[in-house]
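Below is a concrete protein record.
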Amino acid sequence: MTRLTEANTSAEIGLSRYFRPYTEKRDLLVLVEGDDDVFFWKKILEYAKDKYARIDVHTLKLPDAESHGTETDRKGKRSLMEDVHDLGPSKVVAVDMDYDHIVSGYHSYSARIGHDPCVLHTIYYSMENHKLYPDILQKYVSEITQEEPDFDFDSLVASFSTLIAPFLRLIIIGERKRADNTLNESEKELLSIKGFRADIANLKFTRKDGDKETAAWLEYMNGKYGPLLEKYHTATLSLKEELTASMGISEKDYWKLLQGHTLAGYLLRVLKDIAAEIQERKEKETIEKLTDKSKVRETLKQFRDTSGIGSMKMHEYVKLVFTQRPILSENDPGIPLIRQQIDRIPAK
């Protein structure tokens, strides 16, 4: 028998594994928080493809206590950090950093993150923050529309970060006090990541009257958080200095510390609006070139199918591209730091 296809019995098939070329490479299983995380970590782990025989990235599945012989998804960071106990050279977990690095006692497992070589983690708040590095936002629009957008994303993100900075510092102070159990009841309700996400959702993006929209949002935010900004003025100034000194993060970089879904909620709206503007113009130009106007519908369908959007709405297509075709920035200093973590996975 010289080839596996020539094996005639199960015994011969079993013996064939001993005649494979010898390799010291091992498989690596990487467990991640959720389905969307799979695409990001697969992209990151391309860096190590030559180091391992195979790399699999999955969400955690555990035996279902109520249904014998089946498994159930146990998604989320807590499940990975608390329910997986057999980590090692061939099995690691990959999680979002959240505020585990800047809020003492944020989680019961916070101390492990950054110290356990079998726990990979993002450098910024979450994987969304890495996928939205300012210089690659233009690439998403190009991927979606096949056209380079005429828009300064770097300035947009810097302005956005500076705008939200005082309020985000207040939210982080709130998370620290929550971990210390020193927030009063009214502050618990007001200083929440979920509530701040709703606040950012109210910040509209528009190329027209942008200053007017920003002023209205600031008026709302100052009305909501003004008393707490005054109460915690000293604490927030101290935090500002701490973030600059310990992490090198200035106000224009605060987007790195913003909860990932909150950041994505705002910036994907921006991408959608800019991409839709380009798409609508290109569709209009396509129609104008037609001599037979009876073929408008057919031509538009063909154009949309060719561009990839098909029957989807623009916000759906933007989300699909962002989720399933993540782009990493060559200028993101966090990516080499994640690769260093991969290099530190134990060899045996």
Observations:
- The chain has two domains: 20-123, 133-327.
